[in-house]
Every structure is written in C-alpha cells, then in structure tokens.
Specification:
This protein is an alpha+beta fold and 120 residues long. The chain is 38% helix and 23% strand. The chain has helices spanning 19-25, 30-47, 66-82, 85-88, and strands at residues 54-63, 91-100, 107-114. The protein has a three-stranded mixed β-sheet. The longest helix has 18 residues, at 30-47. The N and C termini lie far apart (55 Å). Mean pLDDT is 76; it is low at 107-120.
C-alpha cells in the first residue's frame, strides 16, 4: 500500500478575504501611498540599472505583535539613519511583511515598508 505523503501537516484550509475587501477595510493613507510609490520607483531603477545602489529586501515576516513590530521598525530606521552616510546613501532598504489577524492568526494585510522612509 502506498504511503500517504501529501498534505500531512495541513489541519484546515481557511479562505482569505480578497484584496478588494482588505483595501476597503484598511484604506491606504496618503503617506503610505507616497512611500509605496517612491519605493517601487527606486526598486525599478535599481533593477534596470538606472540606479547603482544595493537593494536589500528583508522578510517576509509575519507580524503577530504590532507594537513589537512598530518598535522594531523604529529601531531599524534609527540604525539606518545613524549609519555611515556612504552606506545609507548607497542602499535601498525594504522590509516586506504581513500583519497577522489576532482572531484567526491568519495573514490579513500584506504590505511592504520602506525602512528608509518614515514609519507608516
């Protein structure tokens, strides 16, 4: 008899909300939209050779404790801002993460944070 090998660790499958529902419940602020736009433009320039900076993408990280993540983001930004100017100006830092819903522990809001920008 063949051994069962598929889906051995899957307890259950929960359907996630479509992005349009998440965006309606959690609309993007103007500041977040500006940070996202500018970061995507910077990434595009780096990937296409128009910008010779190093692109550093951290993550993906699942955030279960929003306060701890906010503290981490502030410390990360402080570390980047207080670093040597030669490093700070030559690296585009991006922190990719998703917020995990407190009620069902499922990822609910995938987002990207540009560490070089303001904390959003």
């Amino acid at each position: 008899m063949p051994h069962r090998t598929d889906d051995l660790r899957i307890k259950e499958i929960k359907e996630l909300l479509p992005p349009s529902h998440v965006l309606r419940e959690f609309p993007m602020t103007d500041k977040a939209a500006q940070t996202t736009f500018e970061t995507r433009q910077a990434i595009h320039r780096i990937l296409h050779g128009a910008d010779d900076r190093l692109l550093v993408i951290m993550g993906p990280c699942s955030i279960h404790d929003v306060k701890a993540a906010t503290d981490f983001a502030a410390k990360l930004k402080e570390a980047i801002d207080s670093g040597k100017a030669s490093v700070r100006g030559n690296v585009e830092w991006v922190w990719r993460y998703e917020v995990v819903n407190e009620w069902n522990k499922e990822p609910s809001v995938p987002v990207a944070y540009a560490a070089a920008g303001e904390a959003t």
